[in-house]
Amino acid sequence: MSSDNETSGRDNGSRYADSELKARAAWHYYVEGLTQERISEELGIGRIKVHRILSAAREEGIVQFRIRDSVVECVVLEQKLKERFGLKDAVVTPAPAESRNAPMMIGHAAATYLADHINPDDVVALGWGRTLKFAIDQLPRRSLSRTTVVSLLGGLTRAQPMNPTECAWELAEKIGAECYLLPVPAYADRPDQQAMFMSQRSVQDSIFRAKRANIAVISVGSLSPESPIANYGFIKASELEELEAAGAVGDLLCQFLDADGRVIDHDVNRRACAFPVQELRDVPNVILVSGGREKAASILAVLRGVTVSALITDEEAAKALLAS
């Protein structure tokens, strides 16, 4: 076979068509940060061919500031998700070769989407999570006049790199927006304290602004003991077990949901200092950013309980959602 044929047609030694092979190699190399050797293992082609494909991708303009070509299978999944769940938009990234890289890859795609969809005069209500943190980190810096960012939940009392407060500040700084926070902890110690915290004038001012948001950007958490809520000590292991026994599949804005997207009747949810999940239904454009097969049940719950306009996820979660 001549070298000209190595990057044209399907006879390339891989299970993917040539255009898809280039796009996947580019994602793994430029977004996921895999070595060429690791990519050759993932795609089932030689290292020399990986190098040639990446060179061709650069020469053909597939790799610019963003990866322009869509992976064919991902485009098909996007269309199916839109039809199945009534979405305006769906963005599906290739599945990462290493599952721990899913938040980074989905965050990269979310940054591109948000850069195209946040405009002057917008009021953006923001959740939190690893994937959203990656998205904000990747978001290009630009000044959007008269924009506002409002955090949808309280913050951490101990400094952490992934603090809801820090996420809101960073997004506001990236787009030159005003920023409003919920100046309370993410969880109160008791439900009566939650009621007291949420009744404060400064908190009610932020909630008032969040209710007038035209965009909400949210993510979901799982019941895994490795989830941020469990890792940061908000929830005891025994409480996670109780929530799971009560039918919880994951959390949205620190409020645990059942499979139909309803907030579970449990003290943990009554302690959450956050924008009520039910009121997200009134936000015109809800953008859900989350992925990984382990998050599929949580994502499905939100799709059932909230009117989501755009879903940004990965192949593994998309396939699991469509199989549900």
Q: Would you kindly provide a written description of the structure presented here, covering whatever features stand out?
A:
44% of the residues lie in helices and 15% in strands. It is α/β, with parallel strands linked by helices. The chain has 2 domains: 3-59, Arc Repressor Mutant, subunit A (Orthogonal Bundle); 72-323, Rossmann fold. The strands form 2 sheets. It has a 7-stranded parallel sheet with strand order 1-10-9-5-2-3-4, sandwiched between helices. A 3-stranded antiparallel sheet has the order 6-7-8. The relative contact order is 0.13. Residues 71-323 form the Sugar-binding domain. GO terms for molecular function: DNA binding. InterPro entries: NagB/RpiA_transferase-like, SorC_transcr_regulators, Sugar-bd_dom_put, WH-like_DNA-bd_sf.
Helix/strand layout:
Blueprint: H1 18-31, H2 36-43, H3 47-59, H4 72-85, E1 89-93, H5 102-117, E2 123-126, H6 130-138, E3 148-155, H7 164-175, E4 178-185, H8 191-198, H9 201-211, E5 215-218, E6 220-221, H10 228-231, H11 237-245, E7 248-252, E8 255-258, H12 267-271, E9 285-289, H13 296-305, E10 310-314, H14 315-323
Parallel strand pairs: 1-10, 2-3, 2-5, 3-4, 5-9, 9-10
Antiparallel strand pairs: 6-7, 7-8
InterPro entries: NagB/RpiA_transferase-like, SorC_transcr_regulators, Sugar-bd_dom_put, WH-like_DNA-bd_sf
Family: Belongs to the SorC transcriptional regulatory family.
Keywords: DNA-binding, Transcription, Transcription regulation
